[in-house]
TrEMBL record:
Entry annotated with the keyword Membrane: no
InterPro entries, per the entry: PPP2R3C
Organism: Helopsaltes ochotensis
Keywords carried by this UniProt record: Cytoplasm
Subcellular location field: Cytoplasm
GO biological process: B cell homeostasis; cortical cytoskeleton organization; microtubule cytoskeleton organization; positive regulation of B cell differentiation; regulation of dephosphorylation; T cell homeostasis
Any one cellular-component term (Gene Ontology): centrosome
Superkingdom of this protein's organism: Eukaryota
Protein name (database record): P2R3C phosphatase
Amino acid sequence: KKSEQELKDEEMELFTKYYMEWKGGKKSDNISYANIPRFYYRLPAEDEILLQKLREESRAVFLQRKSRELLDNEELQNLWFLLDKHQTSPMIGEEAMINYENFLKVGEKAGSKCKQFFTAKIFAKLLHNDPYGRISIMQFFNYVMRKG
């Protein structure tokens, strides 16, 4: 008869064997698991000073890159000037409007930072029940200020 410890050791051996077979079998069945990118990285502990510094620096670089993409005051003024210059008549009350053709012209002149806002999708999103197929310059400008 086997002792209690021998039974436990045998049980652990069998468990390890079957677990490794199961684990290995799963990987060979579906190799796409190897292509899934890692998406979670734990935060560095307080004693991991180098990792903390690396995290701070990478965050600062990311924020600098994002801030360079934002429109500054001068670029916003230039955009407003171009939109106002290319407005399409007639006005609706006090509101200046712009059609798609002029919208694209402004997009070409506005600069590289503004390119992302001059798409058909954004024009269509802001298009309401205008009989001439125009959008409000003020609504578009407010959209750029919110999103940019």
